[in-house]
Structure prediction request, 84 residues.
Amino acid sequence: IIYLAGDDITDEQLPHRTKLTQDILLEHKKMFMKLQNDMKDALGCISFTTNLWSDPILRSFMAITAHFLLCSTDGKLEYRSALI
Prediction:
């Protein structure tokens, strides 16, 4: 925001941290609902893949990705994948 506005931005023009938190959580909820509906409409099975790794100080991480096909509005198959 500051980069786009240059030096003319004031504190009052910046969104408060609680507003940003609300906006982020709302967007997450929208994306989650869309993913949930897309997965319900998936053609055939949904495949899941996992990836495990650790960083240099041995903290462990795991990612799960869903892969599925949908029928697009023009009738073509559309591949989708999403980090779960």
In short: Residues 17 and 23 are 10 Å apart (CA to CA). The first strand starts at residue 43 and ends at 54. The mean pLDDT is 89.
